[in-house]
Design a protein that fits this description.
about 450 residues; about 25% strand; 17 strands; nine-stranded mixed sheet; eight-stranded parallel sheet; alpha/beta
Amino acid sequence: MSGDLSSGEAPTPVDLVVVHAAEVLTCRAASGRGVRGAALGRPERLADGALAIDGGRIVAVGGTAEILARHSGREVIDATGRLVTPGFVDAHTHLVHEGFRHEEWGRKVLGVGGGTGGTLGGGIEHTARVTGAAGDRRLRDGALARLDTMLAHGTTTAEAKSGYGLTPVAERRILEITAALDHPIDLVGTFLGAHVPPRGVPRDRHLAGVVAQLPEVRHLAEFCDVCCDPAGFTPAECLRIANAAHEHGYRLRVHADQTGHAGGAELAIEIGAASADHLEHVSDRAIGMFGDSATVATLLPGVSYHLMDMVPAPGEPEWSEPRRPWLARRYRRLIDAGALVALATDYNPGSSPTLSMQTVMQLSARLYRLGYGEAWHMSTINAAVSLGRDADIGSLEPGKRADVVIWTVPSHEMVVNQFGVNLVASVIKDGAVVHGAERPVPVASNADMES
């Protein structure tokens, strides 16, 4: 991947080389944008692999002997016995909020009513209330602490939505706090003014307020998201917002068909949205449409797991409506149809309180029966496509940003196979180690590195 070797030339100095990795998993797409179909299960793996990094960018990827013949690192990381991969791209999070919803979830486990929300909209309104009551500093510090956890688990780029405001002033505040966060993880802002209809506000007035706010917060958000779902808004209502957002230069995302089929996936594809997320109730028609679409189908296994969609509720017959095979079959059909599929945490305090993309990959295999390579491609290069950043991140290729994770295990399969423990050894962001114990050391010569 680094080009032809030229004998007799002195190695070119670079800032950093990572050498002798048990496996380098590149996650690169062989052609086009992202990885689809059968290719998802065939990731590129380099044994005794190495990277050359300079100026925060990847200069070369290949075998250790090849890289050392071409590049001499001013510093080196010896990755013997370790896996090296791209950093995770988490393309769906609700990062800025206050409070938790453990009481609500505990009652759901026992099959009793009450709690803080009880329904999707009720839970979101509870979080909006406590978020509105919290000070800016508390919201900022909470978001930074979550970003620290995400980084420690291998995430180097993340999308961050508003949506826990439900009023124009509160939505803008969340976007402003997000934009001001100073952290190694790169954040992509999304305006989600149309999350759920707030109680006590006429729907048309709320929608008009969202549309009116679009030009005011454009500098704070790259994307506009809409929730096309029975608990959210109709396709016509979402289209009203999407058309206005497009006029103001936003790219589009859609919360689609989570609690029931509402035509959200079809809408997302028809308006050219970058991503349609959730898809628990995706229709047969939409599955076929994804195959010929650039819209990424983003699956959120943390939601399926935490909301216990895969098991009967208390008092239900054990085999009533077996959701797990149903979801696994649906999502397999998406892959077989040629859809561009990604994974994300959907981090939020109610339906998916996980910050770890490792956990997401592990759940995707257990709940959706995704293979090792499929989970990795969906968490890196395909997620980068959904954010419009696949030319810059999401895979280990020359010219891309040096966002790299070094793991405590020697193979990519082990990260998905194991669970319940953080397997990250260190994280490199833009060519600099920003987390972990694997620190580069000065190197005197190539001979020293090869010995």
